[in-house]
Please model this.
Amino acid sequence: MTGPIDEPPTGPRASPRRSRTQVAVTGEHQMGLREVRPAVFFDRDGTLIRDVGYIKEPDLVELVPDAASVVRAFNYALWAAVIVTNQSGIARGLLTEQDYLAVKARVDDLFAERGAYIEAHYHCPHHPDFTGPCECRKPGTHLYELAAAEHALGLAESVWIGDRWRDVAPSLAFGGRGILVPAERTPKDEIARSKEHGIAVVGSLLDAVHRVLHV
Ligand SMILES: [Mg+2]
Ligand SMILES: [Zn+2]
Model:
């Protein structure tokens, strides 16, 4: 965790990112090879920042303990740290896209001040009761597919970390790993459901990073 960012990661999960490639094919012509990296897909509210409910004020953003060091650990291991968040407050008229962007900028600033880097944020602004069904609201898989395409991520090698079932369930669709970090508001049945599906349930973000990076 203290080495330079270009220092090769060590340990059993270090080799796949150098050996796996993704082939883009158009018709009969191979257009090129590109390296794919594993990603850690974090839920935002209740996982990386305190869940204050439909947050629209950047001043209310507060990182949870260890959020920055956990993101930094993934940064050093050359994993892409990506936030995927349901923001139904937008569909409900409780916040605007501009509010969301202001909060997102504040999140980025707080991590940057601590030497951590969120590579990309994706959000679903919908809610079925207000805007009809969509494919991007978690546990829908659209935003992960989009992130993989835009950032050359290997979904089967990736990890999903969140405080709700909907945050970790997408790991099952892609053959990745889910790790539930329950918060106060996490319903008990979602903890049980996660365990039933082989999703790890851990006590803290630090426990989650230890499981993945063996640091
Ligand atoms: Mg959450
Ligand atoms: Zn959506």
Remarks:
- Residues 124, 126, 134, 136-137 surround zinc ion (ligand 2) (CB under 6 Å).
- The two ends are 8 Å apart (CA to CA).
- Confidence is low (pLDDT under 50) at residues 1-32.
